[in-house]
Amino acid sequence: MQHRIIVLGAGYTGASAAGRLAKRLRREDVAITLVNAEPDFVERVRNHQLATGQDLRPRPLSEIYAGTGVELRLAKVTGVDVDRKTVAITGANGAEELKYDTLVYALGSGWNSQAVPGTAEHAYQIAGRTGALGLRERLASLDAGQTVVVVGGGLTGLEASTEIAEARPDLDVALAAGGGLGDRLSPKGREHVRKVFGKLGITAYEHTAITAVEADHVTTADGRIIPAAVTVWTAGFAIHPLAKATFLEVSGTGQIVVDRTMRSVSHPDVYAVGDAAMAMGAGDKPLRMSCASGIPTAWLAADVIAARLTGRKVPDKTIGYFNQCISLGRKEGLIQYVTADDRAKPMVLRGRLAAAYKELICKSAAWSVANPTLGMPTRHHRVTRQQTLKQETV
């Protein structure tokens, strides 16, 4: 009997995990099912480009997984019963229930309104493709001189504000950051961000908390009114609510708590990867929500599952960082080198070379997802019945 592996979500992490599992295990021994609501793989790290009118290459999941042995189910996940080991989905065939022996939870995150009044009604977001397309339509309708305010001083906010300002130099673009501009970067990194903001004419409201969003302005904590024909909200991410609705142990952020092998600490037949996981990295610090964290966690989970099913040594790996890659429009970029536990080092790469580096990283990540059977030596190991039974009864 085949060991049933279900992967929920086909973003960078879920797509990577499904492809890597297909390369590690024999088709005769496992049935790998990938469930995703959209038919295409979405390059989330390029949503700010999509929002400014750039067209991205379509990557149909049906083409990506053709011939790999991965069964694609286009459906929305509506529930997970970790005691019965079932997943409820709704797709073209209506409501269905899928049974699993091993579950890989990769439903990721969406935008986080931070419960700020008016955000849900008036702000735009780029955490998902639908949100990015909605912002794209709204930006295209703006007349010259109108104001766009990006809220959130993290990497997404920096990328969104510079992309919009470069694509629409006729608009008045501003960024409202809760801290200093680029305050998690090194001094050289912060200096370069300020230089690019100056060149693009972006106004930076530093140490500014937004407490309300209206259709034509935002309000700050100290009562200031900042005009905003469009407000783009990038102030953090919220975990998909489904995780909290299960009996899985979750953190205060709603992330599934996992051990060093990405395995749920409460349900050993469930693995969580990417933004959905509360995983510890180098220095025993939680991994931040990012593609830089997500893909390594997906690779690790896939290798661990394959090892446990085939009776091989389980990988012992600590995930760490090397750099932060930031696009500042199409012509400028910043590569901030960091320690393994994500603290900024003095060294940076700036300018066009950094922009090219970031573009290469984005293309490489998309290529690895779009070519699941290429790039890594294929080693289809046999699943032993003994290991399957052990996995099912732990």
TrEMBL record:
Its cofactor is FAD. It is an enzyme of class 1 (oxidoreductase). One of its GO terms (molecular function) is oxidoreductase activity. Keywords: FAD, Flavoprotein, Oxidoreductase. Residues 4-283 form the FAD/NAD(P)-binding domain. Transmembrane segments: none annotated. The keyword Flavoprotein applies. It holds the Pfam family Pyr_redox_2. Its EC number is 1.6.5.-. Signal peptide: none annotated. Belongs to the NADH dehydrogenase family. This is NAD(P)/FAD-dependent oxidoreductase.
